[in-house]
Amino acid sequence: MKLNVDSLVNKEREFIDFDLIDEVSNIEFSGIDYSLKSPVHISGRILRTGVNYKLKASVDFVLAGNCSRCLVDVDIPIEYNIDAYLMREEYDEGDYEDCDVFSIKGSTIDLLNLIDSTLSLNMPQRVLCSENCKGICSGCGVDLNFESCKCEDSIDIDDIDPRFAKLKELLK
Ligand SMILES: [Zn+2]
Ligand SMILES: [Zn+2]
């Protein structure tokens, strides 16, 4: 997913509009390898500003994830915009506090790299199969969406069994 910006470098053009789709099998994020359920799609415009560039793009794709309560497989739709400066010259980060800035070298821009670096801010905090997901019981491990908790039962058996045993002893 690379964009050649030669025509901006040699000032042939002021901007380049692009619309790219790439089949990527997985994306790593926070040490977790996510499989993709769709190709990565990025479209937008890259604009020359002096020797640097301004990028406005929208990104969309679907990740395969798990519900954070019941762990069932869920699709995570990712959709966000990148609004960033791509700097060919040295820059002072303090001047760009409110926006994304990336250093670029040469006349090729690796868009997948930009997606990797911007994904963290655009990942949903928490993925749920549904707002009402009841999750998995931490005691007995049943999926509470489909079964009722068995913790009560097992505690009862543990409590009663020894007493039953004693009662049986007395009845002998
Ligand atoms: Zn769930
Ligand atoms: Zn339980």
Q: Characterize the quaternary organization of these chains.
A: single chain
What bound compounds does this protein have? zinc ion
Element string (H = helix, E = strand): EHEEEEEEEEHH
Uncertain runs are none
Q: What summary fits the major beta sheet?
A: 5 strands, mixed
List keywords for this structure.
single chain; elongated; YceD; two-stranded antiparallel ribbon; alpha+beta; 172 residues; 3 helices; binds zinc ion; DUF177 domain-containing protein
Summarize the structure in words:
The chain has 172 residues and is α+β, with helices and mostly antiparallel strands. It has 3 helices and 9 strands. The protein has 2 domains: 2-119, no CATH class; 134-172, no CATH class. The strands form 3 sheets. The chain has a 5-stranded mixed beta sheet. Strands 1-9 form a two-stranded antiparallel sheet. Strand 5 and strand 6 form a beta hairpin. The mean pLDDT is 87. Bound molecules: zinc ion (2 copies). One zinc ion (ZN) is lined by residues 67, 69-70, 72, 128-129, 133.
Set out the fold topology.
Elements (H helix, E strand, L loop, with lengths): L1 E3 L1 H4 L5 E8 L3 E4 L2 E4 L4 E10 L2 E15 L6 E15 L12 E4 L4 E3 H9 L31 H21 L1
Parallel strand pairs: 7-8
Antiparallel strand pairs: 1-9, 2-5, 3-4, 5-6, 6-7
The protein binds zinc ion (ZN) (2 copies).
Protein name: DUF177 domain-containing protein
InterPro entries: YceD (IPR003772)
Pfam families: YceD (PF02620)
